[in-house]
């Protein structure tokens, strides 16, 4: 006789609950859509989860909005039970105002700004050069 | 009808809120400004609306049934008419007029660091099931880094996305665009702005009759009284020789705007009835109260007084 309990209630040795993004709609190519989910760490990314806590749609809609939903009540519960949010979920929660801003968000913003400044500094150098070339030609 | 249900629920929650907080009045007037739901106001409004049985029971598109004929004595006929008028009163129950909702301009955080991180707005909705929609947190993180509360339109859209209600659309129906808003039958209109636009249109064209014996007349009267533009309506009533209605409209106006000149004059003279009318109306309308001029001039008079 197959022991069904071991198949259904997979209790893991040293496993813990995480709050992470799981890709939904795997039948559709090139259209990502994530569910924010409380699941055991060892489970497959898109596999069986404990509870769905929200959604994240990375593609903007006609109003140029990216829609994100959180069930804050249940997120509080799971964090109270000791669940760890992953980096992208923590970033989203930081952007929403529920958590303080994630340090990586700030770092990325600073890096991006540095890059922008570099390209802007490069452009004014290029355009006087181009102007000279045209004049010569 | 779904809109009516939600309007009723909103009204219910609004009245609960009203009971909890003491009503905020301007400090100068000690008397509470009358609201739409006051029994006196409601009384006047029902009287103005009138009870035209023919119009209330105007055939609406229904399945075709062959008409039934009944043989009745005159007593039974009277009873039947009485029942019909009761039914008509129920149908004329006006949907409650809510005060216009104030636009939300609450900025929570300004993070200049995040400027230019993303080209799209991020809209965060709280999908906890047991919160009423009014108290739901819906915030928007703009591309320039500001975190602000969502506007009413965004809120409605998000709530419809995550908690869909039958018959609602995410973007407002084409009917509600300004260009298309002309006077149309008595279809259900759901937001106050749409109400306002329709009432303005009605006022401009003087088509009060369309709404006269319907549920929306009270709302129209209340809107005009709050906006202090009752002249057109009074003119219309006087033309139709509904003097009682005109009198009640003027008294309603005085109730709502106790500090206006005409109200104070009326209070000082303690006028009533047609006297009240003369006090409450201005020069142009008073012309109509005079005995009608000789027939050759009537045409030109009506032109000058209806604008």
Automatic annotation (TrEMBL), chain A:
Family: Belongs to the bacterial ribosomal protein bS16 family.
Protein name: Small ribosomal subunit protein bS16m
Keyword Transport annotated: no
GO biological process: mitochondrial translation
GO cellular component: mitochondrial inner membrane; mitochondrial small ribosomal subunit
Keywords assigned by UniProt, alphabetized: Mitochondrion, Ribonucleoprotein, Ribosomal protein
Keyword Mitochondrion applies: yes
Protein source organism: Nothobranchius furzeri (Turquoise killifish)
Gene Ontology molecular-function annotations: structural constituent of ribosome
Region Disordered, annotated ranges: 110-137
Superkingdom as given in the UniProt entry: Eukaryota
Span of the signal peptide: none
Subcellular location: Mitochondrion
TrEMBL record, chain B:
GO cellular component assignments: mitochondrial small ribosomal subunit
Superkingdom assignment: Eukaryota
Cited InterPro entries: Ribosomal_mS22
An annotated Gene Ontology molecular function: structural constituent of ribosome
A Pfam family this chain is assigned to: MRP-S22
Name of protein: Mitochondrial ribosomal protein S22
Species this chain originates from: Nothobranchius furzeri
Lineage of source species: Eukaryota, Metazoa, Chordata, Craniata, Vertebrata
């Amino acid at each position: 006789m197959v022991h069904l309990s071991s198949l259904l209630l997979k209790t893991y040795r040293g496993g813990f609950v995480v709050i992470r993004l799981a890709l939904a709609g795997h039948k559709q190519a090139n259209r990502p859509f994530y569910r924010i989910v409380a699941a055991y760490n060892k489970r497959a990314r898109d596999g069986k989860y404990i509870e769905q806590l929200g959604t994240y749609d990375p593609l903007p809609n006609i109003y140029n909005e990216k829609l994100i939903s959180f069930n804050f009540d249940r997120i509080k519960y799971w964090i109270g039970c000791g669940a760890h949010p992953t980096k992208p979920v923590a970033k989203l929660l930081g952007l929403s105002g529920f958590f303080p801003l994630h340090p990586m968000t700030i770092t990325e913003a600073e890096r991006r700004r540095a890059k922008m400044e570099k390209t802007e500094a490069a452009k004014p150098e290029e355009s006087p050069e181009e102007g000279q070339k045209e004049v010569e030609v | 009808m779904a809109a009516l249900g939600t309007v009723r629920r909103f009204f219910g929650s609004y009245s609960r809120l009203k009971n909890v907080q003491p009503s905020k009045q301007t400090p100068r007037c000690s008397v509470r400004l009358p609201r739409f739901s006051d029994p006196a106001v409601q009384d006047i409004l029902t009287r103005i609306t009138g009870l035209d049985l023919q119009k209330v029971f105007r055939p609406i598109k229904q399945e075709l049934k062959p008409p039934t004929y009944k043989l009745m004595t005159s007593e039974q006929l009277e009873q039947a008419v009485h029942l019909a008028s009761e039914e008509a009163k129920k149908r004329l129950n006006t949907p409650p007029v809510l005060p216009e909702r104030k636009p939300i301009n609450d900025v929570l955080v300004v993070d200049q660091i995040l400027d230019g991180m993303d080209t799209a707005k991020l809209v965060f909705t709280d999908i906890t099931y047991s919160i009423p929609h009014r108290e739901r947190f819906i915030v928007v993180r703009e591309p320039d880094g500001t975190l602000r509360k969502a506007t009413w339109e965004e809120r409605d859209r998000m709530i419809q996305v995550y908690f869909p209600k039958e018959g609602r659309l995410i973007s407002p129906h084409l009917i509600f665009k300004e260009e298309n808003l002309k006077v149309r039958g008595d279809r259900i209109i759901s937001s106050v702005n749409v109400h306002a636009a329709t009432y303005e249109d009605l006022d401009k064209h003087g088509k009060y009759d369309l709404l006269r014996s319907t549920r929306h007349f009270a709302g129209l009267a209340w809107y005009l009284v709050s906006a202090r533009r009752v002249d057109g309506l009074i003119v219309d009533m006087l033309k139709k020789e509904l003097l009682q209605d005109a009198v009640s409209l003027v008294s309603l106006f005085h109730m709502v705007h106790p500090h206006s000149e005409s109200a104070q004059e009326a209070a000082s003279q303690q006028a009533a009835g047609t006297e009240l009318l003369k006090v409450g109306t201005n020069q142009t309308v008073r012309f109509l109260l005079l005995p009608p001029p000789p027939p050759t001039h009537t045409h030109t008079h009506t032109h000058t007084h209806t604008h």
